[in-house]
Amino acid sequence: MQEHQEKICVYFIIDNALPLLLYAGETMQTAKRRWNSTHDCKNYFMNYVELHRKHDLEVKMCSAFWYDTPSDKPTAWLRYARVD
Predict the structure, then answer these.
(1) C-alpha torsion sign, points 65, 66, 68, 72
(2) What is the pTM of this model?
């Protein structure tokens, strides 16, 4: 995974088995540092996977990072990430 300089980055957690967007977040950290840090969404994802496995449901979670996020406003990326 290519590391990028620390700048605003938007990341998405997706279950490709459905497909379903589970989470969208924003960080100033690289993808590796963000995922290795402590945050609540990790527990959410682990519970999501555990529940699917318990009920024998397919789950294919992945993450995607958008490094060219507009930085003019903290939530400017929402205009670009919007699903019409």
Answers:
(1) negative
(2) 0.68
